[in-house]
Each structure stands twice: as C-alpha cells, then as structure tokens.
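It would be a great kindness if you could assist me with a short task in structural biology. The matter concerns a single protein, recorded as an amino acid sequence and a row of backbone structure tokens. Kindly check, if you would, that the fold set down in the tokens agrees with what the sequence suggests. Thank you for your consideration; the sequence and its tokens are set out here:
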Amino acid sequence: MTGKDTGNLARARGAIPPGTRINVTFLGHEDLAQRLAAARAVREYGFVPVPHISARRIESEQELAEFLAALQAVGASENLFVVAGDPAQPARPYGDTLSLLHSGKLEQYGVRRVSVAGYPEGHRFLRELAGAYHPRRHGDIKLHFYTFGGLAATAEWISEFRRSQEGQAA
C-alpha cells in the first residue's frame, strides 16, 4: 500500500485476516510522514507492516537512521523489504540493496526480518549476496527472498545459496 491508501485499508480491514503482512511502499513522491502514517495504520489495524526501503532514494545515513527510528517508535521496524530502487543513479550513499544491508543501521533499530527481491534467473546481486551475507555479520536478522520466475530456477538458486552459507559456517 502507499501512504495515501490508509483510508482504503480502514475500509478493507474486516476482510483481511489479523496478522497479515502488508507491504508499505517507498515511492519517490511520498515523504517520511506519509510512509510512517501508512506503517502505523497497518500496525494499529492488527496487521504486520512491511515497510519498503529504496536504497537509491536514501539521500544520507541520517535519513535512513531517521526513517528506521520513526518506524521503531511506532512498532513497525521488525520487518522490512529492501530494494535497490528505480533511480538509475543513487541519491547517495546506498547504490544498491547490499550496501544498505551492510550499513549496520538495520541492526540498530530492531529489524528482525529483511526481504529482498530474488532473481533466480541470473541477477548479479544474488550471487554477490550469497557470498557476502552471513548471520555472524548481520546478527539476528533473517533474510527472506521474494522471487518471481520458474520453480526449477528458484530451487537451483536456493541450493547454491545454502551451499555458499555452509562454506562460511566456520
């Protein structure tokens, strides 16, 4: 949902099971207050907010910290969906999903679960992530993949990712 959809959520909430995960987008034309209001509404209606963060739209480490702190203050920081985002050029300092994951900020603000876009058909990011992500570095954060594509390609990628993690267990 977007920041302007809180009224629609209020009308639809009776038809949505409590505890449903609801994504809150990170659109370029919405500001922190709109994103926060949407995440707060999702939480207040008994659902699980999953705010998105578009890495390339974040203009500074301070902006990321302010957004995460505001989400934490309303109980909406545990689940995030982190994407690189649409802009071809980053606003700075995060050029992609991996650089934001490595920032150390997520761990500081109560994030427990991070979902990322999965491209098992060959996106270079997943190869980099498989080699760079490890629970020792990212604490208690659990990493999840939203993926679109054939089941065979997805299963093959998951197997490759797990093999890479076994090699880092030492």
User: Anything to note?
Assistant: The chain has a mean pLDDT of 83. Residues 63 and 146 are 25 Å apart (CA to CA).
